[in-house]
């Protein structure tokens, strides 16, 4: 059942620019906002890191500090299939 929503001009502009040829605004919204699913497998996120290597290393160091582990675990840490040292 169709619904009426109110969005800003900027939101409409961005949504329209994101549409693919032949796609309706509803299609674009559904594509850009996939349904949330419970029980999503964390491995779905494997390989999706798009940040810089320095940021990645900083995050790993922060996690290691929180676990009271050594800051470097190069044997099991890779970035784009390249081991980090």
What does this structure look like?
With 85 residues, the protein is mostly helical. The chain has 3 helices and 2 strands, in the order αααββ. The protein has helices at 9-18, 25-32, 53-67, and strands at residues 78-79, 82-83. The chain has 2 domains: 1-32, no CATH class; 50-83, no CATH class.
Work out the strand percent.
Answer: under 5%
- SSE class: mainly alpha
pLDDT < 50 runs, ≥5 residues: none
Instruction: Please provide the ordered H/E string of secondary-structure elements.
Output: HHHEE
Helix fraction bin: 25-40%
Rg estimate, integer Å: 20 Å
Strand order of the largest sheet: 1-2
Summarize the structure.
It is built from 3 helices and 2 strands. The protein is mainly alpha-helical and 85 residues long. The mean pLDDT is 81.
Features:
2 strands, about 80 residues, 2 domains, two-stranded antiparallel ribbon, 3 helices, mainly alpha, about 40% helix
What's the topology here?
Layout lengths: L8 H10 L6 H8 L20 H15 L10 E2 L2 E2 L2
Antiparallel strand pairs: 1-2
């Amino acid at each position: 059942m169709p619904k009426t929503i109110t969005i800003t001009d900027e939101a409409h502009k961005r949504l329209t620019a994101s549409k693919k040829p032949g796609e309706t605004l509803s299609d674009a919204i559904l594509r850009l906002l996939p349904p949330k699913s419970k029980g999503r497998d964390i491995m779905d996120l494997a390989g999706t890191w798009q940040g810089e290597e320095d940021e990645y290393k900083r995050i790993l160091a922060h996690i290691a500090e929180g676990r009271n582990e050594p800051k470097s675990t190069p044997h099991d840490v890779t970035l784009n299939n390249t081991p980090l040292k």
